[in-house]
């Protein structure tokens, strides 16, 4: 006679009442989604803030030492770019111009809204953004720009609508008409809802008062440095530090990204708030999972007492409870992941933020979910260990 496969006791305990299991999974799934959303917003803050630097084809980036964060816009003189070009090991150095406070975008019959305007020479070689190279010729024409497809819908010209860009007329930048000749995709952040890219010549036309007493392009926001083939970026960085004045900050691209993330994480409350939200989601999950496991144990106390009377030791009951906790974590994590992925897409499309669900981030939430359920199981374990066979009689 063929033997039936053995079914773990923990699995039978969970599935004997499917309605209760479904309610339990919904509760734990809520905690999983809450952790995913909090982690998503926290990482979106970091990823979106450094996206301007991340999309640069740069080995080294130079900026003013007074620029504690990218939105601070503490500028330096264009002559530093010339000095960087003369440094040994530097293949090219370009100025990057960024304007946000004075950049006011206005749609026809709409209210003015701030927008981030980026300008650079040779954007096809300087920016690692798909589609930019296709519009370089159009950017050289007067009063033209290309708009970020991730810009907030309805607040700016909508490049995702069915109307071609050339028909979306009547837009203004700083009270001056502007014509859109294409799109790119970079993503917004917590300080900017939209992005425009244009040539330095057009940038100077729209922001003539950017630098008092000097030409608009005399002050630079970031210097983008590309090293010669075969040169060590760290060695070139050291030469730049020695050749440039002490008021300049010289960092490799990765170092500047790490510095910016560190600022937002430690010097602002935003990173703390989203981290606290993740902790709250974890605690909520622990409470819900504890109630589920405790209720299940309470319902099966006579069975546990019988098993203890048959000679099963505490180690067996510990394994049963921890298995049950692990099954709950997996069963709740899978729908939570699917729901969170859909929610990330909706949030990314509606806000323009970089809500990215990467494998390391999925792994972190999975480990938190497992830990959440295991902690709950350990807290509820005292109930099953207290089962006394004498209570049966």
Give an overview in words.
This protein is α+β, with helices and mostly antiparallel strands and 393 residues long. It folds into two domains: 9-49 and 269-392, no CATH class; 56-253, no CATH class. It has 13 helices and 14 strands. It has an eight-stranded mixed sheet. Strands 5-4-8-9 form a four-stranded antiparallel sheet, with no helix packed on it. Helix 2 packs across helix 9 and helix 2 (18-49) runs antiparallel to helix 13 (359-385). It is elongated, with a radius of gyration of 29 Å. Mean pLDDT is 84; it is low at 1-5 and 159-163.
Structural class: alpha+beta
Poorly predicted regions are: 1-5, 159-163
Q: What is the oligomer described by this structure?
A: single chain
Fraction of residues in β-strands: 15-25%
Q: Characterize the overall form.
A: elongated
Strand numbers in spatial order across the main sheet: 10-7-11-6-3-13-1-14
Radius of gyration (Å): 29 Å
- Rounded mean pLDDT score: 84
**Total domain count:** 2
Count the DSSP helices. 13
Largest sheet descriptor: 8 strands, mixed
């Amino acid at each position: 006679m063929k033997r039936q496969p053995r079914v773990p006791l923990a699995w039978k305990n969970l599935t004997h009442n499917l309605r209760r299991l479904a309610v339990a999974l919904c509760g734990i799934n809520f905690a999983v989604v809450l952790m995913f959303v909090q982690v998503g917003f926290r990482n979106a803050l970091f990823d979106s803030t450094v996206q301007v630097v991340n999309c640069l084809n740069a080995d080294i980036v130079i900026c003013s030492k007074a620029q504690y964060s990218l939105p601070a816009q503490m500028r330096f003189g264009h002559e530093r770019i010339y000095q960087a070009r003369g440094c040994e090991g530097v293949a090219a150095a370009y100025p990057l111009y960024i304007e946000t406070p004075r950049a006011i975008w206005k749609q026809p019959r709409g209210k003015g809204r701030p927008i981030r305007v980026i300008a650079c020479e040779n954007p096809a070689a300087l920016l690692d953004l798909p589609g930019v190279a296709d519009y370089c010729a159009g950017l050289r024409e007067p009063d033209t720009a290309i708009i970020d497809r991730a810009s907030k819908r309805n607040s700016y010209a909508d490049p995702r609508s069915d109307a071609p860009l050339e028909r979306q007329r009547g837009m203004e930048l700083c009270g001056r008409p502007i014509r859109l000749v294409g799109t790119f995709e970079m993503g917004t952040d917590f300080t900017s809802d939209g992005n425009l890219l244009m040539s330095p010549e057009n940038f100077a036309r729209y922001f003539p008062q950017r630098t008092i007493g000097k030409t608009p392009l005399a002050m630079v926001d970031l210097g983008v440095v590309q090293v010669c083939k075969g040169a060590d970026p760290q060695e070139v960085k050291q030469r730049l530090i020695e050749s440039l004045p002490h008021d300049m900050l010289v960092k490799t691209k990765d170092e500047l990204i790490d510095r910016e993330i560190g600022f937002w994480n430690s010097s602002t409350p935003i990173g703390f708030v989203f981290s606290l939200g993740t902790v709250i989601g974890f605690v909520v999950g622990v409470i819900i999972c504890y109630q589920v496991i405790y209720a299940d144990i309470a319902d099966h106390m006579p069975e546990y007492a019988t098993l203890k009377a048959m000679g099963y030791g505490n180690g067996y009951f510990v394994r049963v409870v921890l298995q049950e906790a692990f099954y709950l974590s997996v069963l709740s994590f899978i729908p939570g992941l699917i729901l969170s992925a859909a929610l990330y897409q909706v949030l990314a499309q509606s806000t323009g933020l970089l809500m990215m669900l990467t494998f390391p981030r999925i792994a972190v939430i999975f480990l938190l979910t497992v830990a959440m359920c295991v902690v709950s199981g350990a807290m509820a374990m005292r109930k099953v260990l207290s089962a006394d066979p004498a209570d049966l009689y």
